[in-house]
Write a structure and sequence with these properties.
The protein is of the alpha/beta class. It is about 20% helix and about 25% strand. The longest helix is centred in the N-terminal third of the chain and has 15 residues, at about 45-60.
């Protein structure tokens, strides 16, 4: 496992992402339920999350020694809460400070830690496996690249993206916010230009087709070089 020399804050550049994500939760742009924070149907619809959790759990439990997991963009933690028990340590990160403060109250375990960080500008926590579930799809290519530059410190990556059905031109740029590249009939693929992320191997963990041709929720497992 490769580690960062200095975990914590780096020099920041004023990306708009923090304000945009805070607005998502304040204005309930991804919907609402009976909780203070709601990360949308993608984190609550059983048709989407059940096969995802089954696949990720199978991977995590395949190790004799549990992994240190970094959940980068943990949201309301409706999914992450199901994976904590399969980790040696579970570090859940999000950019929205009130959300992290809320999660710290709602979810407690001896091996669970919450951190408020900007993935694009802050040093990422040390770990064996990073999970980014429908996070990068909301970010500009510049911010994605800043994050990708740091992902080689993990041995495994579990990355979930909402992409169009069938073939599409990947990595069309967007402005960071609640939207995704679907409006441009595009989706993220870290292995091709402009990111060209280098890996040792890849495996599809889950492929969930949404109704009414609304795209695919694709989860890939990458073993990093």
């Amino acid at each position: 496992m490769t580690t960062h020399k200095n975990e914590g804050k780096m020099l920041k550049k004023p990306w708009p992402t923090k304000a945009a994500m805070e607005q998502v939760y304040t204005m309930k742009l991804w919907g609402e339920n009976n909780t203070s924070f709601y990360s949308g149907e993608g984190s609550h619809d059983t048709h989407i999350i059940t096969p995802y959790l089954d696949a990720v759990t199978a991977f995590l439990t395949s190790f004799k020694k549990p992994l240190v997991i970094c959940d980068l963009g943990c949201g309301d933690f409706n999914i992450g809460k199901n994976l904590v028990s399969y980790s040696k340590k579970y570090i859940a990160v999000d950019i929205v400070e009130p959300l992290i403060a809320y999660n710290k109250i709602q979810f407690k375990a001896d091996n669970l830690d919450f951190k408020c960080l900007d993935l694009a500008t802050d040093n990422l926590p040390q770990g064996d496996c990073a999970i980014l579930r429908q996070v990068l799809q909301h970010l500009s290519n510049t911010e994605v690249q800043n994050i990708v530059n740091k992902l080689s410190s993990y041995k495994y990556l579990i990355i979930t993206e909402h992409v169009p059905n069938g073939n599409f031109i990947p990595n069309e740029d967007i402005i960071s916010g609640q939207g995704t590249r679907l409006k441009k009939q595009s989706g993220l693929d870290l292995l091709v230009s402009p990111f060209n992320f280098k890996i040792k191997s890849k495996k599809r963990l889950s492929h969930i087709e949404l109704e009414n041709n609304k795209g695919v929720i694709l989860t890939m497992l990458y073993e990093v070089l």
